[in-house]
From TrEMBL:
Keyword 4Fe-4S among UniProt keywords: no
Basic and acidic residues bias (residue ranges): 12-21
Keywords assigned by UniProt, alphabetized: Calcium, Disulfide bond, Metal-binding, Repeat
GO molecular function, one term: calcium ion binding
A Gene Ontology term for the protein's cellular component: extracellular space
Assembly and binders: Homodimer; disulfide-linked.
GO biological process: regulation of cell population proliferation
Region (Disordered): 1-40
Protein name: Protein S100
Annotated PROSITE patterns: EF_HAND_1, EF_HAND_2, S100_CABP
């Protein structure tokens, strides 16, 4: 949630520059110059937020993925992973496991657990293949 707030406030920061203290204006300009070209990490965070919002916004609550939205996300964005699963119940079980507060929806934190888990799995297989 913090990352979302920081990333989202980038444009607001520039808009509210006139309101900031005059003696710190040069520092604000430096900061803005850096912020106008986000780092790769910042771009990754923005991408995660954008992709979450894209699928979460399809029906109902815009801040969470329903089961249908989750399946659409998995079959679209992670089709290579999904197609490789021989067990047809794997996505159902993933949804249940990720939905830690059991409300039938994946909020952004729960979505990040999915992305984080997949990233760890990819990293593990990558480091194994380097040995
Ligand atoms: Ca949930």
């Amino acid at each position: 949630m913090m990352a979302e707030a920081q990333v989202g406030s980038r444009d607001q920061l520039q808009d509210s520059e006139k309101n900031s203290k005059t003696e710190t204006t040069p520092q604000y300009q430096d900061t803005d110059a850096k912020m106008s070209s986000p780092t790769e990490t910042e771009r990754c965070i923005e991408s995660l937020i954008a992709v979450f919002q894209k699928y979460a916004g399809r029906d109902g609550n815009r801040n969470s993925l329903s089961k249908t939205e989750f399946l659409t996300f998995m079959n679209t964005e992670l089709a290579a992973f999904t197609k490789n699963q021989k067990d047809p119940g794997v996505l159902d079980r993933m949804m249940k496991k990720l939905d830690t507060n059991c409300d039938g929806q994946l909020d952004f934190q729960e979505f990040l657990n999915l992305v984080g888990g997949l990233a760890v799995a990819c990293h593990d297989s990558f480091t194994r293949s380097q040995k």
